[in-house]
Amino acid sequence: MKSYGEFCALARALDVIGDRWTMLIVRELLVGPSRYSDLSRALPGIATNLLAQRLRTLEETGVVASSEEPAPVSARVYYLTEWGLGLQRPLVELARWGVPLMSAGAGDDHNRGRWLVFAIMALYPEAAALPAQARFPTLTARIDADGDSLLLVSGPTGVRASVTNSDESAEVTIAGTSEQVFAMLSGGCADTPARITGSTDALRRLSELTATALTAGHDPADLPA
């Protein structure tokens, strides 16, 4: 592991997580524990030997741990330690800082529906940060995007999302590309909008939810970075 050699908390942190791909590996593990093959598939472009090296370094520094899981998994599964989970807040804030960079659209970039789990962490504030008397509506929504299905759950304690099955039942179903779904969840719009189905009442609550997004009512390009 290379070091900046500086007695500084930021420099010491970057010694651990500042290498290329490392924070994206952490992002994937914030979505959920993953097998090596899951991580390789979720991180297009990373060489297999580099992924193995980064995981080894993260385990050596105590950010990540792993265990051999029995059937039906029958594989080594990687997960964040308690210390590693402490990276959620700073990485979410970094993602919020990067939202204006999304305004150019996906272009030729890779897309994975599962990345919307992390996007949802960044788009919606903590329940305690909502204005007085405001709260998140109670709602479940299944998101089908770019080969993945997610379950978004909104309620008084906040907004959360997780990877799920394509047949998961929910009050609202949202289908489209990651770019289309991101635009909808952020309170904006896409040239071709995501397909949304649900009862009139559920769609009303979905509209109430997207109105609480930190980006709602703003052009992402105009947000302070």
Can you give me a brief rundown of this structure?
The chain has 225 residues and is of the alpha+beta class. The protein contains 9 helices and 8 strands.
Question: Can you walk through the features of this model?
Answer:
It is a single chain. With 225 residues, the protein is of the alpha+beta class. It has 9 helices and 8 strands. The protein has helices at 9-17, 22-31, 36-42, 48-60, 82-85, 88-98, 115-123, 178-185, 200-210, and strands spanning 34-35, 64-69, 75-80, 139-145, 148-155, 158-164, 172-176, 195-198. The strands form 2 sheets. A 5-stranded mixed beta sheet has the order 6-5-4-7-8. Strands 1-3-2 form a 3-stranded antiparallel beta sheet. The mean pLDDT is 92.
Radius of gyration: 18 Å
Number of separate helices? 9
Strand content: 15-25%
Instruction: Give a short account of the largest sheet.
Output: 5 strands, mixed
Q: Supply the helix-strand structural class.
A: alpha+beta
**What is the fold named in CATH at topology level of the largest domain?**
Nonspecific Lipid-transfer Protein, Chain A
Q: Runs with pLDDT <50, length 5+? A: none
- Helix-strand string: HHEHHEEHHHEEEEHEH
Helical residues, percent: 25-40%
